[in-house]
Amino acid sequence: MVSCSVCGKPAIYSAKYEGKAYCGEHFLEWFDRRVRKTIRKYRMFGSKEHIVVAVSGGKDSLAALHYVKKLSKRVPGWTVEALLIDEGIRGYRDVTVKDFKRCAEEWGVPYRIVSFKEEIGATLDDIVKKGAEAGLPYQPCTYCGVFRRYLLNKAAREMGATVLVTGHNLDDEVQTFMMNIMRHDVERLARLGPVTGISGQEGFVRRVKIFYEVPEKEVVVYSVLNGFFPEFVECPYARLGFRWDLRHYINLLEEKYPGTKYMILKSLLDIAEAVRKGKGGTPKRCTVCGEPSTKDVCRACELKALLGIG
Amino acid sequence: MKVRWRVLGGEWQETDTEAKTVGELMASLGLSAEEYLPSIGGKLVTEDEELKEGTEVTFIPVVSGG
Questions:
Q1: Are residues A103 and A207 in the same domain?
Q2: Mean pLDDT throughout A254-278?
Q3: Residue B37: which CATH number?
Q4: Is residue B47 part of a domain?
Q5: Shortest Cα distance from B31 to chain A (angstroms)?
Q6: What are the pLDDT digits (tens) for A139-159?
Q7: Binary contact (A251, B37; C-beta < 8 A)
Q8: ipTM entry
Q9: Which residues of A fall within a CB distance of 8 Å from B60?
């Protein structure tokens, strides 16, 4: 049996990449210390913030909401709300919405739910059908990602958010970086980082990833130890995306060579900074909807036109 | 040695195994330690946890389905 590197009690988790193990109590201390360090290092919050946490009902975003709500009790100038985007995925989102509402009510967090159907003009299920009928080359995750990011910013701004927190973890970021490399999408690569988006532009809510340096596995441990690990339900479109295969390969490498994910993250930070200097793109406003964009017409309006919706 | 295991939310299965630890069991079942967290009796355990006859292991999926 492995012992906790701090107190010697039986460990519940081994962090192989740093050669240490932790019992439940010391895992939570270690987790908290690292997240607070990330928040400080990237100057994610000020002393006065209206924080909106983007939630899906999955374990990453619930963990982000749980963590921020707990931290906010120590900061009098912070208020916390949650925002859920209902994409309209039958048999999936309805389950996670239930988990989310249960937690939000238990933790006393006010929330807003915004749906694709009302705001974009169609559910994701309908969009996927329309896209196939129109012969568009996109995977469901493309539509979902574009419209979700678009609505998160718009709704968070309407809620008066000064900062938008997402539950993205180390694994998500490493996967996105590798996807951008494999697709030669240098412009998107340049936008990656712990604090993202078209910063400083009016209409854009700054987006921060508090679990940027935390592996996905450790977010699960956090949610299990805090008793809110949600019911496991898989998005029907998840296995169709490039990310599904890629994350498995990265996980195989991490298992064989612990620390691989952190090394990729370090490369990401250096490369993204270097690329930003030359290729960042100038912030603009979309000429169709007026939302912040790096192009004349934002990606959401471009897709809506191709799909004939909205 | 016979042990019982399941992936959280799935059915219990019984396996006759030569694995001495949870990590060896995971390897024999083809479950990546990066993608599943083992627990016994509702508590998380490390991969070095020793197996005994009749041990029941639940694997919690790390990868979210969305």
A1: yes
A2: 91
A3: 3.10.20.30
A4: yes
A5: 11
A6: 898 999 999 999 999 999 999
A7: no
A8: 0.94
A9: 220, 224, 229
